[in-house]
Amino acid sequence: MSRKYKFQNPTAAYFVSFATVYWVDVFTRQAYFAILQEAMEHCRTKNGIEVFTFCFMPSHVHLIFRSANDNPTGLLRDFKGFTARKIIKASEENPSYVKHLRKKTINGISIK
Predict the structure, then answer these.
(1) CATH number listed for the domain at residues 14-107
(2) pLDDT value of residue 91
(3) Residue ranges per domain, the chain?
(4) Of residues 55, 54, 51, the one with CA closest to residue 75
């Protein structure tokens, strides 16, 4: 399955979902959840995202949005990139949580 979103009409509203790698529950910690909120605000002010509704879950995000700049692909790329960079930085500053994540298992298989 393709991971690249295919937006046929750049002015339309779209429903998208995306998840963390291995569906790890990253957003259960307030600091990481706040990063999602910050990324949303960043995209509102800098990238022209118009959000109709969203749902932040522990391991994934659901979003109904449109791009005011008619570039939904670039908007999602920037949202994910902004979020990833912030989470990586926060994880480096708080290694105890990263250690906790490494102990997770998926269907009995330990992820590292």
Answers:
(1) 3.30.70.1290
(2) 86
(3) 14-107
(4) 51
